[in-house]
Fold:
Amino acid sequence: MIVRTYGDEIIMTEQHNHALLSGELASQLRHPLFGDEARRDEVLMAVRQHDRGWRVLDDTPVWNDRDELPFSFQDYPMLPKLLMYKSGIDEVEAMSGYAGLLCSMYYSSFEPIRKGEGPGTRDFYKAEMERQERLSRWLGYPDQGMLAHHYGLLQLCDGLSLYVCFNEAGVSKEDEHPWYRDSVGTLAGVTYTARWHGKEEIIVSPSPFSRTFRATIRSKRIAKADRDRLGIGEAYKQAPYVEQTIVFQATP
Structure:
């Protein structure tokens, strides 16, 4: 879950919904940014499905007493996260070996996992390294430069989607979430930045998109009073999804 607060509301976006937006952004990228077009559909699948394992955990939010907020992807306990990561990668691999390889690279890159911090991280990392070797062998050892490029594409679209989820529409640059204030990602040596232009438009510089387009994402806005009255699980269940539409401007 991606969690932020605004006034008396808790805004919650399910990870898979965020990933679907990432996939929509990837589908609008200029064709040269894909490099090897033969892998385009598999790369789009990886971007769109990279967080599908979160669907189970996000179905029922869990309250974090310490922070007085629902657990988010940042602070959710490690062991259930690792089980979710593995399940999600397994599902993507069943759809596409190349997409599964990209998703395995994505999850094994997280610093606590690379450094073996937290229960189960060493075993998870070892298993994903073995998965990556197995998939690379099965795929005939794809070009490493192109693989790294496609992985960077996933990260860029993930960062841009998170920029949307972490920021209230129309927020000023100085009040943006610090993670993405200076950059939403880098691809092929080019660093991209994003900013809100009014409450509906986002401008990414330099523009990676082939055209101006609209995209949507679904979230829930939970009144803190409802959380106090019902508990976070029931309050989340009763709250309707709110669909946010964003116009991404393509500039020369």
About this structure: The longest strand covers residues 213-223.
